[in-house]
Here is the input.
Amino acid sequence: MCGIVGYIGAEEAAPVLLNGLKRLEYRGYDSAGIAVLGKTGLQVRKAKGILKNLEDKITPEINSALLTGAMGIGHTRWATHGGPSDVNSHPQTDVSGKIAVVHNGIIENYGKLKRQLEGRGAEFRSETDTEVIAHLIDCYYKGDLVQALIEALKRMEGSYALGIIHEDEPDRIIAVRKESPLIIGVGKGENLIASDVPAILEYTREVYYLDDREIAAVYRDRVEFYDAEGQGREKELAHVSWDAAAAEKGGYEHFMLKEIYEQPKALTDTLRARIKTYAVKSINLEEIGFDETWAEARRVVITACGTAWHAGVIGKYAFEHFARIPADAEIASEYRYRNPVFNPKDIFIIISQSGETADTLAAMRMARKSGARIIAISNAVGSTLAREADLVMYTWAGPEIAVASTKAFTTQLMCVYLIALQFGALRGLIKAEELARYIHELEQLGSHTKRILASREAVQRFAALQFNKTKVFFMGRLFDYAVSLESALKLKEVSYTHSEAFAAGELKHGPIALVDSATLVIAICTQTALFDKMESNIKEVKARGAATAVITFEDTAYFDDTADTIFRIPRTADCLSPILSIIPCQLYAYYCSVQRGLDPDKPRNLAKSVTVE
Ligand code: M6R
Here is the structure.
């Protein structure tokens, strides 16, 4: 995830900025940069790769007093628009090179703004959405950076935390945020801005938390606040008591929990820029560029490993459901050694959070040779998968640090649903009004996940009672079966509990022999037409002594008399429910791990990215 730091005071800014950026390294990044304003004007330095590359570049300049100035902004970038490179790193500047901007978030209408600005003569050097902001502010600049920013913000859609400096205003840094965090650290004769607490802890513990759309003008000796219309406002200073380790995790005990909690935002980020709102809402997958030729496809093949494969299984059901096209979900490590039958009219969807999984890449390369179209879904811009696939759709989840995948999974689902829905529309199977209804449901998922997370204590209490169970089975039908697979994997990974997933209809064909009073069965029940079937399955395992829990919609009392424990999730379309029903299961796995005294972020024997066979 990108990181922001800014400094204004009596010290040389460059070393302070570097230091702040080092404190944000844990968040993951692919390039870094700083802008310093001093006697020689605005100076920008950027470098792709690790922070050391930037440090090596600027240290001689700092030592020989060539890069001086007591104010500046810095950034670590996790690429979204445009791959990792020096030129795509932040700060981004306007045409005159007087305005420098660092940005976390996504400007959704940047394509449109860029075309308009180019029409007015702006020359763009990078592929980033951030450069648009610098040019846009320049358009409105008449000697007051705050006023220019207010006008620019009126035209920007999306999420942002921004640090901005202007060569003609050497006494202040301007900061603003919307849906992306930003704080102001208040020191003695110096002030800082930062996206995260760790960047400022060495300097101060007194902070202002910026509210959405609130603007701060940060001077060396004071901070002024304005609302979106430029009206001044007062704010209360807060004290940060976290230690450095807690601050890195945003106050959460572990990265896994933090990332579970980041899902509402990650889902919204992944969805929003891909929705067009005119008379009725529609899906706009510019990165894929669907046209009529796609309707000729005969089959969709999804390949991936682990959690990403589970997203693929849900994708298979989604393609069948929305687009009525044959679809397969293949485990990449198996697929690469099979002798599969290819057809140039196949569409391959390759899913990988890291974009570096060896088996997944091998399966992708095999599919390429067949002449089929390849769409990659990845969380890592510039990864091998992203570079080698024909088309890439990014999950804008931000870096996932915990080994167990959580927010990458739900955002992969969001991408898969968007492609399947768009495909259904292209094949004339989903009419505009129906598509708009599904889009509406997708748009609700961010707030629905927030509501589920708000009731996490119920899952925590349940885990406190059940964490010692030696056998945990998840079961479900259709989409719920796929969620069961992912839930069982999560529990295995972080709590080392023996857990398995079963298609509920398969119970009688063997697995029920394992069920006894030492078993916990968690039934995922969101496929409304199959509630009675699930009820029978729950009764069957109860009759053999198993403890039972059900995850179902909040507006049904169907399982109230059957299950021992019920976790409720907000109502959505049955086929979209996996994005919601997985959340209690992620929390359950997390709390079982903690109860067992384990470190959920670093499970034994596992690596975050499996780049070898
Ligand atoms: O980076 P990828 O999505 O290709 O990784 C695939 C799997 O290795 C990964 O999902 C793994 O199963 C996770 N540890 C799951 O939590």
About this structure: The chain has three domains: 3-247, 258-454, 456-595. Residues 128 and 505 are 49 Å apart (CA to CA). Residues 305-308, 352-354, 357, 360, 403-405, 493, 606, 609-610 surround 5-amino-5-deoxy-1-O-phosphono-D-mannitol (CB under 6 Å).
